[in-house]
């Protein structure tokens, strides 16, 4: 269906509610307006057509649950990616720690050799 661009003036508190709804539903403000109109039509048709308001409310809640399920699935994917990133970072840190340990040992050996007197180093060199 074709989209129509239209400008409306609404009260500030209604606009704040629109922003809040669009954030809760994780949709644009235009999509939130469309959804609110559909819900209003469902409630009106339920009142006119004999369908109970409770069943309309239940169907609205089911729709909301579907939205929340998709949001949770998206969050689960993000958590899985973050866990992979943490695991990779942990491996990198462990590798860096191992490299640092080896470097520290090498420096310790070099400093031990430098503490020897000139005569001791020369004697070691002659002995092989």
Percent strand: under 5%
Taking all Cα atoms into account, the compactness measure Rg is 35 Å
Shape: rod-shaped
Number of strands: 0
The average pLDDT is 84
The total count of helices amounts to 4
The proportion of residues forming helix, as a percent range, comes to: over 70%
* Biggest sheet details: none
Q: Report how far apart the termini are.
A: 90 Å
Going by helix content, strand content and strand pairing, the class is mainly alpha
H and E order: HHHH
Low-confidence stretches: none
Chart the SSEs and their pairings:
Layout: H1 12-25, H2 29-49, H3 53-115, H4 118-127
Helix pairs in contact: 1-2, 2-3
Can you walk me through this structure?
Helix content is 84%, strand content 0%. The longest helix has 63 residues. By secondary structure, the protein is mostly helical. The chain is built from 4 helices and no strands. The mean pLDDT is 84.
């Amino acid at each position: 269906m074709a989209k129509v661009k239209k400008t409306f003036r609404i009260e500030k508190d209604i606009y704040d509610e629109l922003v809040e709804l669009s954030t809760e539903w994780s949709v644009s403000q235009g999509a939130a307006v469309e959804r609110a109109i559909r819900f209003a039509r469902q409630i009106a048709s339920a009142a006119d057509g004999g369908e109970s308001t409770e069943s309309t409310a239940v169907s609205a809640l089911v729709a909301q649950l579907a939205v929340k399920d998709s949001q949770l699935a998206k969050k689960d994917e993000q958590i899985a990616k973050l866990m992979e990133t943490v695991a990779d970072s942990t491996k990198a840190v462990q590798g860096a720690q191992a490299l640092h340990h080896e470097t520290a040992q090498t420096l310790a050996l070099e400093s031990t050799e430098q503490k020897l007197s000139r005569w001791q180093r020369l004697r070691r060199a002659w002995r092989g």
